[in-house]
Amino acid sequence: MRNGDIAQRSRLTRRTLLGGAVAGAAGAILAACGGNPDAVPTSGGAASATSAPGVTGTTGTTAPAANVATAPRPATSTPQVVTNMAAATDEMPVRGGRLVVADSQGDQPLDPFKSPWHSTAHFLVFTRYVEKAPDLKFVPASFEIWTPSPDNKEITFKVRPGIKFSDGTPLDAAAVKFNIDRFIEPTRKSPGGSAFGPVKGVEATDAMTVKLRYDAPYAPIYEGLSGREIASPAAVTKYGEDFTNNPVGAGPYIVKKQVPGNSIEYDRNPDYNWPAPFFKNRGPAYLDGVTIRAIKEDATTWAALQAGEVHLGAIPTVYIKDAESNPNITVHKRLDSGIRYLGFNCQKAPFDDVRVRQAISHAIDRPSIVSNALDGYGEVLYTPMASAIAYSDNAAMEKIAYKFDPMMAKSKLREAGYDTTGPVATKNGQPFETTLLVSNTDFFKRAGQIVQAQLKDVGIKVNIQITEGTALNDATVAGTHQMFLQLYGSSDPSIMYYFFHSSRIKATNRAWFSTPEMDKLLDDGQAELDVAKQKEIYTKVQETVVKAAPWVTFCNPYAFTAIRKEVRGLIIHPQGGFLHHDAWLKR
Prior knowledge:
CATH class of the domain at 3-25 and 336-515 and 549-558: Alpha Beta
CATH superfamily of the domain at 3-25 and 336-515 and 549-558: Dipeptide-binding Protein, Domain 3
CATH architecture of the domain at 3-25 and 336-515 and 549-558: Roll
Shape: globular
Helix content: 25-40%
Number of strands: 27
Number of helices: 17
Structural class: alpha+beta
């Protein structure tokens, strides 16, 4: 059975999905480029192994850098500047006002060493090492110049002079070393530590120079640096584990107030004058401040947008026509930079049996999830690598995937020792009953209902558990979970290391899946600089994940963002996320 059949048979119409008791939103609309999971469309070519385009120093010349697999350029790679009026490009920015943003993931911890999610909520208060410009090149941020060694095993970075944290302490080489050391400290198991790869040493060679050392070239280093923050060592030392409630960085804003699970208020940093080179505004922000509201319900976001209580927010497809007809709102559409998927705990029975994972894969009708949870606004996905990622090959993975086939699903369950003659499959007299963790956001609640109904049809009873805040991620780190729905966003193939390397179990390998063969592929992918060889490696990685089925990938959804007409100068990055430093409000 296909889309309409499964919805009708299970009585899961669009109306019942919206009104149901069950998970997660389309994700944080402000997830910035380089941001992590738990952070677009058509693939372009990867960068040349010899020229390494996409890495630019302050001189504007291309650096012979290690990152030779820069993100592909989407077909719609031209950045959009939010003007909302034909004549608005000629308007002079006006200082003042507070931008209010609805962000379903806006309640993540602001301690970058703890957070599994790195997005605008963090980048408002912290600077990064480098930034990814709208033309997809890496440009200076806290680092102004970088020079790789001839063998690409060392990279020397010059820290931009004059940057200070909001507590008055300098952002210098010692601060950089402190931050990287804290990210990669083995006992800390920081979710963001993998961004630096298998770094063997971090050395502050003088007050403004830092050197990273590797045993082998590490291709994704600049992608990682563009998605990690630099915190004040003095503040981290002072507040310790409570730093998340007292964050101090060198970004364009200072945290004024946090209401856990509800909102974060930021005030302009008056001393900030070190924005990335692609911004027109070279001084402090035009805005007096920014407020991020962690709104989980789509209807609440839409009501707040209509009332002018929120200036921008992601909206579901059910409100698109209303938004497009509203003269006070502009709707921006793009293919999302990440994917949505179902994951298993592969070290906990019965999901340690690949036949069970294959059975569930056959039971899931991916197109029905796109049709019923997204109103058709998405692309069905079979590969674990988002469309934006170099070497992602959805067409090839579709050919080997365990596609929707309920009869085959029951056959696989029988191979795994289950009796499928009754309404609930049993093994050794025990019914197949499991728990699905679902974030408390609308898309995932709809998707959870669909998964629940489809697995019921093959004899698996699914209990949906709605989670709040970081509870889902905490469970997958502790290994107490069975199944979960999740999303991620990335533009670099090295993200597969983050999810499937054995060293990331109890951190970001939420499926608790690993094999020696997969570890070797992922290690080789991190070190390989030849594009053709990288493609071969990551094709094998995709094939391994599809066949072993630690995930059932669903889709790349389209993202719709509604923006109030008074917002000016906001840049929509081609890979998702918003660049805010030129933003201002017309009043």
